Amino acid sequence: MYFNRLWVHFAFLCFISLYGMYLLYKEYNEILIRRIWQIQKLKHRPDQFTIVVREIPLCIEHKARDCCVDHFFSKHYPNTYYSYQMVYNTEDLEESVSQAKSLARKIEDLTESSMAKRRKNKLSLLGLLHQETSKAAFLEEKLQALCHRIHQLQCKDTLQKKELPVAFVTFKSRSGAAAAAHLQHHSHPLLWITELAPEPRDVSWRNMRVSYRVVPLYKLGVLIAASLLTVFFAIPVTAVQGIAKYEKLKQWFPPARAVQLIPGLSSIVTGYLPSAVLKGFIYIVPLTMFAMAKIAGCIARSKEEIKACNMVFYFLVGNVFFWSVLSGSLLDLIGQFISHPKNVPSQLAGAVSAQADFFVTYILTDGLSGFSLELLQPGMLIWDILKSCVHGCQRETSPYLYSLPYFRIIPLVSLSVLIGIVYAVVAPLLLPFLILYFCLGYVVYVNQIRDVYETTYETCGQYWPYIHHYILLAIILMQITMVGLFGLKLKPAASISTIPLILFTWMFNEYCKMRFLPSFHHYTLQDAAENDELDEKCGLLELHYENAINAYCPPGLRPVNFMASESSSTPLVSS
Q: 381 Cβ partners below 8 Å, 6+ apart?
């Protein structure tokens, strides 16, 4: 009778899998419609008229690349080409501008301090005021010299020596830019490489200096580093799971029996402590992965965060899920694996259900501590205190706002989805805790997105294909787990019947890639032409493409104003 009830589990497995795929398809289609609507709403954005051109060959006659860009696109796109903006290696120029801004801020702070003390009419402070005035005059002289150096670095002859084989090319229409971005422009595939430009706020100017030819090496290095981090992180995960198996740990590590001397402590140590320690360990992982993604050669900040999202997600799946499942029963299985190696598959299948209690605690820990830390922002608070201690109580010239850390939030939430889906059939009592987790997370992140974080760039839904992939991976893991469990419960017919379901899920994933994914990676010619027609009717097309070329000016070449002090009637430098 018990074994016959396993067919109920198989029925629920099919229902969850098929209904999940139906919801994924429906959501994919809905987000694609919203993406197209959002692109039309943001039709004034410069990136719709602009492409990035990389690996520009050197003009032999003029020993430069800018003339080569203008000649190439004027010849091949005579009706739609408008202008171009070369990219330069302005690292030293940006450093000088940063120093000049810092000096200007110090001068302004000194001037404000002096004016405030003069208004108090304290004669005893005249000497101190004179010292501050002298210091401000010295800083102004230093600022003038620095600004003179900035003007020299910004001159055309100096910039031409630091020219990079990268340019932003602007077209007179969106359809012209879309067509140029998706064509191969040279018989040599590593010359005149084009793609749609990211929006100006999304450009990673630092990685523009990386040659396109060496980007695969950068990606390979990041992949190796992320893999090593994932492997070595298994050490603390194993230690944490050893704490969870306290009864077996006492046999392997006798000093652990001292925990029993304090009433109730053993319950805390084996229940809440493993999840809290694991959560503390993985708190630093997203920041580490994001730092590695920054050196992978991506020319857009959004691509850096998407790459970090992938690395963090697979790290969490490998360590928090798989390694927790295996190492949670590792102390019990070591002897059995050695004496009865034929039982390894069945023991691994049973290990998944054995860790249901741990993942319930993990979900609760992540919900209570994770969302509390998200609201309190202790990391940003500590960082702000450190900056105040280092720089003093200076007036803030920029708002205290940061972008939403997608690379941290999306993988953690996706891991919770994966745990919930995998255990939906095995241990459905975990689902109420997961529903509570998502309800609390919805309230927290709606508040954070509306009132805390600043929108620094807009991708128009490009994160969704990756979230779709994570959820499908969770469904496939659930199906594979049930194949092992049906075999463990001596139901080979149910195991064999699950295999076509896995193949169907894989085929569904491939269909979604063909049906939806290209529209997320490309700006379609049809949408571009329709937006061009709307702009032509309104007379805004010319205005939009004229504004596009100025939007991609490198940071070191943008106009800046440095004010000497409030007493000065004109800025020290205007460049």
A: none
| Separation CA 245–CA 243 (nearest Å) | 5
Exposure on the CB side of residue 439, measured as CA atoms within 13 A: 7
Cα three-residue angle 537-541-546, rounded to 5 degrees: 160
Query: Position 28: which residue type?
Result: Y
SS3 content of the chain, % helix, strand, coil (to 5): 75, 5, 20
Residue with tokens 């017919």: 493
Residue type, 445: Y
- If you write DSSP's letter for every residue of 324-389 in order, what string do you get? HHHHHTHHHHHHHHHH-GGGHHHHHHHHHHHTHHHHHHHHHHIIIIIHHHHHH-HHHHHHHHHHHH
Bridge partners of residue 573, in order along the sequence: 562
How big is the chain, counted in residues?
Answer: 575
Give me the amino acid identity at 5. R
Burial of 190-222, coded b for 16+ CB within 10 Å and e otherwise, reads eebbbbbbbbbbbbbbebbebeeeebeebbeeb
CB 106 within 8 A of CB 56: no
- The string of pLDDT tens digits covering residues 59-99 is 887 778 888 999 999 999 999 999 999 999 888 888 888 88
Model confidence over 146-199: pLDDT tens digits?
888 888 888 877 788 888 999 999 999 999 999 999 899 989 999 999 999 999
- CA distance linking residue 256 with residue 8, whole number of Å: 43
pTM, whole model, 2 decimals?
A: 0.82
What residues does 574 pair with on adjacent strands? 561
**Residues 163, 65: Cα–Cα separation, whole Å:** 8
Residue 403 phi, psi (nearest 5): -80, 160
Which of 22-26, 224-228, 400-404, 560-564 bottoms out in mean pLDDT, i.e. has the lowest? Answer: 560-564
